[in-house]
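Example 3.2
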Amino acid sequence: MSKLYVVGIGPGNVDNMTERALQAMKESDVIVGYTVYVDLVRELLPGKEFFTTAMRQEVDRVEAALGMAAEGKTVAIVCSGDGGVYGMSGLAEELAGRYPGVEVETVPGVSAMLSGAAILGAPLMHDFAVISLSDLLTPWETIEKRLRCAAEADFVICIYNPSSRKRKDYLQRACDIILESAAPETICGIARNIGREGESTVVMTLAELRDAETDMFSTVFIGNSQTKRIGGKMVTPRGYIHE
């Protein structure tokens, strides 16, 4: 049976890539992916065939990968973070039925919510929700509802895709919704360029986050009512220590 690996490459640097992810790519004849992500692993895979597409060509990308696998090649389609978290795993499974004889295997990677949390401190020590602010595939009304419900339930909220050139005010709008339930002093953090050149973090209040600048390489963490700033880091207590 032909094989299509959906490989989560984590932040993109080899130190944060699983051994299984690297091995799956080495086993593959062709590496497929969004140009930016393929460029992160190209030097690790000399002699491989590469097939890249621009952003927002996900269906074409996955169909190309499945088509090459159906021809007998072993193919790896790479995703930043984890392929099953806003990645290509779901789409690959949905389309695989059109390509009999191709087996899809997801190789997990370190998602930005985990790698970002690690460099910020420990913001995800208790229950949390992960919400993308991209409305390309999800109506903004649905995103608003999810933000409001998560805030009302006092979840820590990890936000993917907080803003872009076309969505400059989306994080501000999200903060306004969360401020309906959360205090302005709620501790928040931003992790940028995780595991790559220019990696940085900043811890701030929710009121300050509302006016902060972010981009598609930023992951935002909004604490719950118990989240603290400890030694410059963002920490959500689990409740082990009773003060």
